[in-house]
Write a structure and sequence with these properties.
CATH superfamily of the largest domain: Zn peptidases
Structural class: alpha/beta
Distance between the termini: 40 Å
Number of strands: 19
Number of domains: 2
Strand order of the largest sheet: 1-2-6-3-7-17
CATH class of the largest domain: Alpha Beta
Oligomer: single chain
CATH architecture of the largest domain: 3-Layer(aba) Sandwich
Largest sheet: 6 strands, mixed
Strand content: 15-25%
Shape: globular
């Protein structure tokens, strides 16, 4: 792509969009006002609604949303040369804003994806692409994953701009395409093609952070510093087959079944890194009885299998935080009900610790299965991204703001068992920290699901948290 096309001020796109924005304000007037919220909350509400009502599933693309936010930023007074809309193709463009600071330090980058998982009206009780406030919740696809944070970031940089705030370093906001799927991942595209737009000392990724509510109580708040690595293996047992009326012991399905049983019974060793060690230390401080004793035991001796087994039995999450995990997810075997199977195939999906090794995992699976008649082939391996070292300024800011807003909340670093766009930046040498002030009920997680929603109060609290956090890590008074 021609580099000049990145700058919205050098083409007519932004001007046309800006004109449409002004016309719409004249024709349709201001959205209905709610006197119970502040001016800043009203802005965050309106941006949130606008984003939810733009369908950004992979097939529709992120460009309309990126352009809409670019219009808002220009209207707020940001220079056209600091607003960039560009991407891999016309449908999947990204928005990058540079909020100019004093330049005392290298920039801080905030990333958040614009795309959402598909949603069909027939599967929901409400329209997934109409922003709805009902019974204390905001409903719509993306309300928790993760247009709440897209709106949060745009609303807060506009608020800071209006207040005349000058950060000690540049603040970069990147709202990107295709994190949830598709072939036009925005963070990867920007790193590959225009790293200068998003190069930073470190990155904040709200998609990796957030908090848990338990019956309305703010319980946990996490700072994500790493992610497990996605690995997939195919196990296959083959046989000459034959007629089912003449069965033999050497059956491809039985061989595969025996292999899968062995995989299910094997636990990879406990391997704690800086983040997971910190996680168990902090959680041990508020646990009691056997759980606390077992957490302290694995911190003292990661080879304590009995303690690790008990923790794994208590929580699948504890198990995933301690070790690499592998699990069978798909099985396909046989070709006719009256024939001996000629092939039996299973997919085993692994989530590897970031400091483990794919070849070691493959070797261990073969060893555990112990049957050369069952082939084990790696079919997919995500790249390995390092653990981001804990930054005292980030941790200190999160803890200070969180405890002032929600006294008693437990703030802890975590390693995500899933994946986010942070992995691309970590691989490129930019540390990433998942930080968000958005809380959802632990037993009401609806991201990617039916009737996705976020509490109204939780949303506004999350916006306020991020406002304070941005100022905290970019202020001269840290």
């Amino acid at each position: 792509m021609n580099h000049n096309r990145l700058y919205l001020g050098r083409n007519t796109g932004l001007s046309c969009l800006f004109l449409l924005f002004l016309i719409s304000r004249t024709l349709y007037g201001q959205p209905e006002r709610n006197d119970n919220i502040t001016v800043h909350q009203k802005l965050a509400h309106d941006i949130f609604r606008e984003l939810i009502e733009i369908n950004t599933t992979t097939g529709k693309g992120s460009t309309r949303a990126a352009e809409a936010m670019a219009v808002r930023l220009k209207y707020a007074g940001f220079s056209e040369t600091d607003i960039h809309v560009a991407g891999a193709d016309s449908l999947h463009k990204n928005l990058v804003l540079r909020y100019r600071g004093k330049g005392k330090l290298k920039p801080v980058l905030f990333i958040c994806h614009l795309d959402v998982v598909e949603a069909f009206s027939k599967d929901w009780s409400v329209d997934p692409f109409i922003f709805l406030e009902k019974d204390g919740y905001f409903y719509g696809r993306g309300t928790t994953d993760i247009k709440n944070e897209d709106a949060d970031l745009i609303a807060n940089v506009i608020r800071l701009k209006q207040e005349g705030y000058v950060p000690n370093r540049d603040i970069i906001i990147a709202l990107t395409a295709d994190e949830e799927g598709g072939q036009a991942n925005g963070v990867n595209w920007l790193l590959t093609n225009h790293r200068e737009l998003i190069d930073a000392e470190f990155c904040i990724n709200p998609d990796g952070g957030g908090g848990d509510l338990r019956k309305g109580v703010h319980y946990d708040m996490v700072i994500q510093t790493s992610e497990k690595i996605y690995l997939t293996f195919e196990l296959e047992a083959r046989n000459a087959g034959g007629h089912s009326s003449l069965p033999v012991k050497d059956n491809a399905i039985y061989r595969l079944a025996n292999a899968l049983i062995k995989v299910s019974e094997y636990d990879f060793p406990v391997m704690l890194n800086e983040t997971t060690r910190n996680y168990f230390e902090r959680n041990a401080n508020r646990e009691t009885g056997r759980v606390k004793a077992d957490m302290l035991a694995i911190l003292d001796n990661s080879s304590d299998k009995e303690a690790a087994d008990r923790l794994a039995a208590v929580s699948a999450y504890y198990n995933a935080m301690m070790r690499t995990t592998c699990v069978a997810t798909i099985v396909n075997a046989g070709h006719a009900e009256n024939a001996l199977p000629q092939s039996a195939v299973a997919i085993v999906n692994c989530r590897m610790l970031p400091d483990d090794n794919p070849e070691r995992v493959l070797s261990k699976l073969k060893e555990v299965i112990g049957d050369t008649a069952v082939s084990v082939t790696r079919t997919y391996a995500s790249f390995v991204a390092p653990v981001s070292p804990l930054r005292p300024d980030v941790v200190r800011s999160v803890e200070k703001i969180a405890t002032s807003m929600w006294p008693g909340v437990n703030v802890t670093p975590v390693m995500s068992t899933g994946a986010t766009d942070g992995k691309y930046l970590r691989r490129a040498g930019i540390p990433v920290y998942g930080v968000s002030g958005m809380f959802v009920e632990t037993d009401d997680v609806r991201a990617h699901g039916r009737d996705e929603r976020i509490g109204v109060a939780a949303y506004y609290e999350g916006v306020e948290f991020m406002y304070r956090f941005i100022k905290s890590i970019t202020s001269d008074k840290q």
